[in-house]
Amino acid sequence: MNPPSARPLPAIAQRAQRLRTSAIHDLLQLANRADVVSLAGGLPDAASFPADALREASDRVLREQPHAALQYGPTEGIAPLREWVAAHLRAQGMDFTPAQVLITSGSQQGLDLLGKVLVDPGSRVVVERPSYLGALQAFALYAPEFVGIEADASGPLPEALAAALPGARMAYLQPRFSNPAGRSIAPARADALAALLRAADAWLVEDDPYGELWFDAPPAPGLIARDVPQGAHLGTFSKVLAPGLRLGWIAGPQGLIDKLVQAKQAADLHTASFNQMLVAEVLRAGVVERGLPVLRRIYRERRDAMLSALDANMPEGVAWTKPDGGLFVWVTLPPQLDAAALLPQAIACGVAYVPGDTFNVGAPARNTLRLSYSTVDAPTIRGAVARLAALIHETLHHEPALRSA
């Protein structure tokens, strides 16, 4: 039999044609080499995963409730987990009931569901600059008009939000220890932003994956807790327990949750029953509560190592954020440098990072980059930052080809 003749595949949807694998993504595959220290990824520290507690909880679930754990379940999520999330949010000043909580397959699925339910082609979606790349990718599939608003050390600028909100469908914000900037919204700034959002005919999507990873003191409540009734809150167990379990949540007004449940039914029917019951069991046993102080100590030590290394080694003209929690430091290079153009040289020096332009909509931000301290020990961080600083110093003085046009 002759092989079928080669011919073009049938057409795919126009929205799928907007999907891209970036050159940066391809380049960062090189960061998996043993001789490269990756300060690029935002993964939690794998050594902190409570494997023994999860193994014990797994045995209990399969011994005591095997049929329920291995059977289909409700799209909304199991009741004990939704009750825990509602109580957790009430403690932060958000008045959600268990019926207003949807358990998702990671908070990334929550972003996709919100895009499906809230975003039409051409809908205006307001995001801070810089913003979480996963959210930009999730929403982009639904063809919005992104509007980026500038921020300072206290958070998004109220005047920028006020100018962007008229006609907007949604504002996506991270109130605590944002990815990639490591920035939290200061209380007075949060009050001003909440007042603007209350008066607007736009949804607030509040994403809070890092809020429990504070170092010295708990952060102030977010925006929904400041009486923004049209707010949807996203959370996750990935950063405080284990990302491989793929468990997150959306909490929001009942009418929105009802539509999100319908969208999730079409997507995957429900989040894995066994994983939900496993997490409910470890929550009941206090595993997360006991583990959080350990996580905070690990990440605070690594944050301190990174900040001290930046301070000791970076040349004049380089600035960076000083996060009070989370996993990231945002670095701004002198304006003549291009972080993406510099990345191959950095990898050759044994250091990887994420160029900052990929986190931005609107005007380019080529002289920025994100560093993560989550998966690398303090001595290794210090050495990697010293090598990166030496490369930046050399580039400023001798490598014009790696500067921005």
Automatic annotation (TrEMBL):
Concerning PANTHER family, the annotation shows:
AMINOTRANSFERASE (PTHR42790), KYNURENINE_ALPHA-AMINOADIPATE AMINOTRANSFERASE, MITOCHONDRIAL (PTHR42790:SF19)
Please give the subunit comment from the record: Homodimer.
Name the chain's protein: 2-aminoadipate transaminase
Q: Which UniProt keywords apply?
A: Aminotransferase, Pyridoxal phosphate, Transferase
Provide one Gene Ontology biological process annotation.
Answer: alpha-amino acid metabolic process
Q: What class of enzyme is it?
A: transferase
The cofactor required is:
pyridoxal 5'-phosphate
Q: Name one GO molecular function term.
A: 2-aminoadipate transaminase activity
- SUPFAM superfamilies membership: PLP-dependent transferases
Q: Which organism is it from?
A: mine drainage metagenome
Enzyme Commission number(s) of this protein: 2.6.1.39
- Domain Aminotransferase class I/classII large, by residue range, is 36-388
Task: State the similarity comment.
Answer: Belongs to the class-I pyridoxal-phosphate-dependent aminotransferase family.
Pfam families (alphabetical): Aminotran_1_2
